[in-house]
Amino acid sequence: MGESINVALLGLGVVGSGVARVLLAKGEAYARRLGRPLRLHKALVRDPRRPRAVDVDPSLLTTEASHILEDPQVHIVVEAMGGEEPAHTYIREALARGRYVVTANKEVMAKHGPSLMSLAHQQGVDILFEASVGGGIPIINPLRRDLAANQIRALRAIINGTTNYILTRMAREGLAFQDALAQAQELGYAEPDPTNDIAGHDAAFKLSILASLAFNTHIPPEAVYREGITALTPRDFRYAHELGYAIKLLAIARHHGDDGLEARVHPVLIPQEAPLAKVEGVLNAIEVEGDLVGRVTFQGPGAGALPTASAILADVLDAAQALIHGRPPSPWHPPSPIPLRPMEQLARRYYIRMEVADRPGVLAQIAHCFGKHQVSIASVIQKETNEEAQTAEIVIMTHTAQEAAVRATIADVEHLPVVEQVGTFLRVED
Amino acid sequence: MGESINVALLGLGVVGSGVARVLLAKGEAYARRLGRPLRLHKALVRDPRRPRAVDVDPSLLTTEASHILEDPQVHIVVEAMGGEEPAHTYIREALARGRYVVTANKEVMAKHGPSLMSLAHQQGVDILFEASVGGGIPIINPLRRDLAANQIRALRAIINGTTNYILTRMAREGLAFQDALAQAQELGYAEPDPTNDIAGHDAAFKLSILASLAFNTHIPPEAVYREGITALTPRDFRYAHELGYAIKLLAIARHHGDDGLEARVHPVLIPQEAPLAKVEGVLNAIEVEGDLVGRVTFQGPGAGALPTASAILADVLDAAQALIHGRPPSPWHPPSPIPLRPMEQLARRYYIRMEVADRPGVLAQIAHCFGKHQVSIASVIQKETNEEAQTAEIVIMTHTAQEAAVRATIADVEHLPVVEQVGTFLRVED
Prior knowledge:
The structure is a homodimer of 430-residue chains. In chain A, 36% of the residues lie in helices and 26% in strands. With 430 residues, chain A is α/β, with parallel strands linked by helices. In chain A, a hairpin with a 4-residue loop joins strand 14 (377-386) and strand 15.
């Protein structure tokens, strides 16, 4: 059957163990397909004595990255450690030594993707990262290959399962954010420190990767506008529902031609009948809009050991085939800079919820602020009043307005003595 | 920029014109990406003087296939004629002469896919057919590459836009089948002779292609069990809705390990909250279930000149890259025969609507037939009665039962003098 293709794993946590388990279980089936054995050759771990979900031969474990990176018998390095460092350095080292690299690391790919792809290109190898976005959902390769004839116009995605699970529970059961988060943590859907998910960092990393590919540019993750979901209340979900909308954390990128790119992650109101509104629980979905194809949507489990292993091992099989058949790596085009549009230029309809004093003339004062900034009000609903505190809740939906004008309006409204606070401010995505 | 990659088109109808239009409009952008010009070199047409939606240089038109097939300057042949012959013969000829072939032809690929792929493999080229299923939705390549680490367990798909449009109108507006069909024809969504779509042939071709790839076998289209949508009535949609279901024409293939494969196209009841139940109008959606990834769904426009051109040109760009970079064609594995399970072995819940005489004792006689064949009744609803004709309508939902037993039951029920007719008989897909 010829010499084996040797795979080394950096990291044997949830994702790494999943990959090892599948490699051990399916190695023979994969070998039949490749015509060459595909073997787990080494695995980097922190503590070789720790019990694991997978029965890896202890002689394959090492605590020294150099034992893998400097081993000439390793053909494919699978990075499954997560986090920026030392993963980034190890990946760079592996590529520099002419190894194929497969990674699930969204932070590394978001921050260093273009320079790593350039390095891979110089070395005549490839860095494959299908698993870095959307778990097992094929999206990176379809963007690179299957939609390559299109000019991509926009991406809209639910790419963080934790927050989508929390929002689904809040919408369905009227839970408060903290209670929905606690339940997500109990079920293992949210980390003990959930900041990375609930503040939108994870989604921003993934949007950075997708948008950089779709528009052949580099959008560093810190350039993505970002708001989390912590300020949402059960009342927002009730009002949104009444108005015919769902609330979702969307990652959105859109190409405005010469006017540049927008790239943002924040909760939005989206019509209940929109396909993305119906994506529930931990599922992910990515909608791609191309000039030829129109809108196509990719949906599935966005996380989990086996779905992620599905994506990683597809890349491993692809790299193995490239090695076996002497196939040149996929062509690489240096990214072109495209200016990012400031959020202030965004034009959307807006939902604004505020607590106000419950007395005559209040609405007139608020409406005056909106008028002053040319923000046109589409509807006003005065919601439940709190008789004790003598306050009422007002929800205003605007017509399409510029974000700069809406923010200036809110700043003015917040200064009105009759306004207790502006609670939530959400953009509408149609 | 080097010598051009020359593309020849067989057929300049809706799909062919779309491809030509995009090639002319985007040729330069594609050339920049490839590093070599990509040119429309020749196009086979029936009548060169016919006016067309695209402005192709008349000197490129030919009425002789041999002018294209025997031209050594042609690198990539795009077949956009449709129908089995002469398309199949031309594709075979092009491959035999070492040309890359890109096709949107579901009939040819369903019937001859494995032998054409084998021929391409022998010739060191490739036949690419992303456009043959699901229009612009990436599904063929994701199955072949991105889900390659999985053992595929099942496919469930809405892959005929015409019938999905008709069913959507029937469900939403209570239209009769003939009226919904007439509207689809008016809008150009259905052909003047709609048999191919409404009888399920088109969906069976596409299922044959998908299932053959997913299970690495060859399922000839005539081996796919097939029922069309012509027998459905507005009442079925009303009852289905009351019971919490939508009615969809699904193409389903499932691997039962040593028990063989099922492959079937027919209308089903599917729970309203299932993702496939929410796919409306001319949209297509393909759900793939793999042992690692779980369920992933691909959704988008399943037809139309530009979405189909999106898929064809992605394949053309891929073939061009293979030619330019000397990349070997994708590996090919001869299909293994897998036995097909007869429909009689299917185990499902069933919906049966029948017209019966409106008098006491009728239900007892019907229930007796069900009991005799061990088909357990889950619920019976007696629906509107026709007082003049003294008939009533009964809808029976069964528990899970074997298709053979249900069919035997229905044959018995049809022989009861109190039963006017068994109207509709639908399988439930959960």
